[in-house]
Design brief:
Elements: H1 2-7, E1 17-24, H2 32-36, H3 46-59, E2 65-69, H4 77-80, E3 98-100, E4 103-107, H5 122-134, E5 141-147, H6 154-162, E6 171-178, H7 182-197, E7 202-208, E8 212-213, E9 220-221, H8 228-234, E10 240-243, H9 247-255, H10 259-262, H11 267-278
Parallel strand pairs: 1-5, 1-6, 2-4, 2-5, 6-7, 7-10
Antiparallel strand pairs: 3-4, 8-9
This protein binds adenosine-5'-diphosphate.
């Protein structure tokens, strides 16, 4: 780890990027990427991320929003943002981000076509992250939302070392995404401890898939339990957003059309927008 630290560029600003928001979750499959598209600042889950980025673009149309998929092992942004091309290289030898719904995106999923990343280790992951951060023409990006992989491993350390985070206003902080079951909360708590150690501000917690409404009787069921609030209190994190389990969100992920675009007036989208406004 010491060797890797020495080889990495340390906390340099990213050309063309004003603010960075990370979106993180301890456990996979809790909806980080789904959320992130909607966030303006640092951390969100994949489904969360996609909706956050697009919501951010809706609440701040004059701002340039970028979405960086730092999950080199399981990139999901190309599917969720419906971007499947390979980026072009400009005259400065930088990759040009792909754009959909007004959001600039860059993902390992657009650079490799096979599963070779699954066997990558340490330095290779760090090299790839550095390329995704600094080998891209982010030109005038007001907010860069970073979708991080699940866990507390190499990628997070690499990001924490590589991004101009602590004590620097460029990084707004990390948004934690989790579901409510104990299996997820334990890992989420470890993630929170890691971010605190790395001195990355925690912007809030998103409890994803919080309730499921019965389509027949409208009864709301806390399918994964409701212990996230307890965790937030214990960890002294004030801000908590709840997003229900909604088939429109699942369909939006699979079809590459975020719910922010397909159902702009829905109550779920109001939550994503308030999250974007809050950030
Ligand atoms: P992570 O990034 O945490 O691994 P994803 O964002 O990829 O998780 O979410 C996993 C899947 O769960 C997505 O493909 C999406 O279809 C679904 N999903 C996420 N959040 C919701 C939600 N609130 N309602 C319905 N489906 C959701």
């Amino acid at each position: 780890a010491e060797l890797m630290r020495k080889k990495l560029p340390q906390k340099r600003p990213i050309n063309g990027v004003d603010h960075i928001i990370l979106v993180a979750s301890g456990k996979g499959g809790v909806g980080k990427s789904t959320t992130a598209g909607k966030l303006i600042k640092i951390y969100i889950n994949v489904y969360c991320i996609v909706n956050l980025a697009t919501a951010l673009k809706c609440v701040a149309p004059n701002k340039d929003v970028g979405l960086l998929d730092a999950d080199v092992f399981g990139p999901s942004i190309p599917l969720m943002m419906n971007l499947h091309e390979t980026p072009l290289i400009n005259n400065d030898n930088l990759m040009v981000p792909l754009i959909n719904y007004g959001v600039k995106c860059m993902s390992m999923g657009n650079l490799i076509t096979d599963q070779s990343a699954a066997i990558w280790r340490g330095l290779m992951v760090m090299g790839a992250i550095d390329k995704l951060i600094r080998g891209v023409s982010w030109n005038h990006t007001d907010y860069l939302i970073v979708d991080t992989p699940p866990g507390t491993g190499d990628t997070h350390l690499s990001l924490a070392q590589n991004l101009p985070i602590s004590g620097d206003e460029i990084i707004l902080g990390v948004l934690i995404v989790t579901t409510g079951q104990k299996a997820a909360l334990g890992v989420t708590r470890r993630g929170i401890t890691m971010f605190k150690k790395l001195k990355i501000p925690i912007l809030g917690i998103v409890q994803n898939m919080s309730t499921m409404k019965c389509s027949k009787c409208s009864h709301e069921n806390f399918i994964f339990g409701d212990s996230v609030q307890e965790l937030a209190i214990q960890e002294k994190i004030d801000t908590l957003f709840s997003i229900p389990l909604d088939p429109n969100i699942t369909n939006g992920c699979d079809s590459g059309q975020p719910i922010v675009i397909t159902h702009p007036e829905s109550s779920q989208v109001k939550i994503y927008k308030s999250l974007a406004e809050y950030l």
